[in-house]
Amino acid sequence: MLFTAPIFFINMAWNMGAFDWLQHAHPKNRRLIELGNKKVIIAGAGLSGLTVGTALAQRGWDVHLLERSSELREIGAGLYTWENGLKVLEEINVFEEACQNVEFITSLNMMDENRELIHSTLFSKGNRFCVIPRKQIHSALVRAARNAGVSIETNACAVSADPSGSLTLDNGRTYKADLVVAADGVYSNIRQSLNIAQTMEKMSNGALRALIPRIEADEKGIAREHWSGYRRIGIAPSTDQFRYVYLTAPSTDVEGLSDPINKEEWISSFPHLESVIERIDQARLDRHFYYIYLHAWSIGRVALLGDAAHGMEPNLGQGAGVSITSALELAKQLEHFDVDTALRRWEGLMKPTAEKTQIWSRIYGSAASNWPKELLHVRSDVIRKAIHSENIESMMSLAARHITGR
């Protein structure tokens, strides 16, 4: 009976005709069948593109993902991952693989130039925080996407899209779909091709980022961000083998943002961190960061996702977190509504969160890099008193508390 039942239902569907069988199907099954006919083209196989592709494929969509590079790879060191991002990884079933050997952090402490505490953020089981190696989370998402049935094409550089739901590559090839998703980064070609009011603001701050080997003397479970003048060094446990380190400075700080890193220069600002700085072998340099502001995240059947829609400085560590949360939110809205309605609801839910996160990221960055020089001696006290305000701390953690599907 176990073997004959499927054959019976297949024959019944054939004899009744696809339309009649669809009408008799259970409502849940009917929705999945209808979604299976819907196709999405995604430009960009970064974290947000892979997340939305996986989530939609898991919901019955036909997903084709285009990547401009010749191979699938993630550039960078570690990824600050807060509760919102971790919930996304759990919902698309990549948490175990992405977080393998990752050490969860119990507190994140801001320290001033006198090595005194400015503020401490505490974490718990319901409010988690960790740093995942970027290559590790990207590899987990690639496998999840392929397992879900996502078709991935490399050497496919998208240059434009049309609101009707078409996407064109640099070789002239054009794809048509029910939905086009542009997850092609801060310099998005697709965004530039669309008639959407937008602002791309170049910031005068940059950073070096690296994974360094762990040693026995390293702290466990505690992340710290050290301030000295206009320079900052962040140090956090990542896995059982690595710690994540970032060094930020104004873009005009030539010695601070040299490539390769000028270790002596950084040790002069943070002598107590010499052991950490000396362990930096290779580091990724970003001399500038960008904020992207859009009047709308979608036009017609084209949606902009991740850095293409809301690029920001990494001051709050929520650039990727907001992006993958937005990706899952989009998939959930498309599961229940037609494309037009889903896009409208998705933007209404996610855009305010992204924009407020951008605002607080700018405020944080200004305090770190643009504080009046003559008032640096009072900066720690001012920040300490301001950030201890319950409202400010709540606003800064807004993105981390976002739950998709609400």
Automatic annotation (TrEMBL):
Keywords: Monooxygenase, Oxidoreductase. Signal peptide: none annotated. Pfam families: FAD_binding_3. It comes from the Bacteria. GO terms for molecular function: FAD binding; monooxygenase activity. SUPFAM superfamilies: FAD/NAD(P)-binding domain. Residues 39-336 form the FAD-binding domain. This is FAD-dependent monooxygenase. It comes from Brevibacillus fluminis. The lineage of its organism: Bacteria, Bacillati, Bacillota, Bacilli, Bacillales.
